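Exercise 7.
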Amino acid sequence: MAFMGLPSVFQEEGVGWMLRFFGKGRGKKEKPKDEVDLLIERIEKFAPEKHRHEREMYYYNYRIMPPYLKPLLALLTALCQKERLGGDQSAFAEDLFFLLKAFYDLKDRLSMEEALKDEGLMRKYRELFLYFYDKREMLPLNRERLLESYLRFK
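Solution. The predicted structure, written as C-alpha cells, is:
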C-alpha cells in the first residue's frame, strides 16, 4: 500500500503510523483523583476482593449524590483505620456505628435508641465488617456507652 508524498518509512508501516500520529496508541489522561478515590484505593488494598461488588453498590456509588458525600468520606476514612480492629475495639465499634448511622440516616430521623433497635441499620453494621474486613462477627456495641456518647454530642 503506497501513500503518495510520504517518506518511505511511513509507507512501509502501513496504517500503524496514522494510529500513533493521531493518538490511538496514547494512554488516556486520567482525571485527577479526589479524596473518595484515594480512600477507595486504600481500602481496596486490604478489603476482600469477593465483596468488591457489595462495597461498590452499597457505599462507593453514593459518592455521586452530594448529600451523601460528607458522611461517606467520614465513614471511608474510619474504615481505612484497619489497625483499630486490634486496639480499643469498643471505641472503634462506637465510631463506626455513629458514622454508619450518619451515612444511612442523613436527616437524623432516628434517635440513637431507635437506631440500635433498627434491624436494617444493625444488618448494615454487621455487613460492614464482612464487606470491608471479611469478618463474619461484628464488633460488639456497648449500648449504654453509645447512648451516653450520643447524648453528650447532641
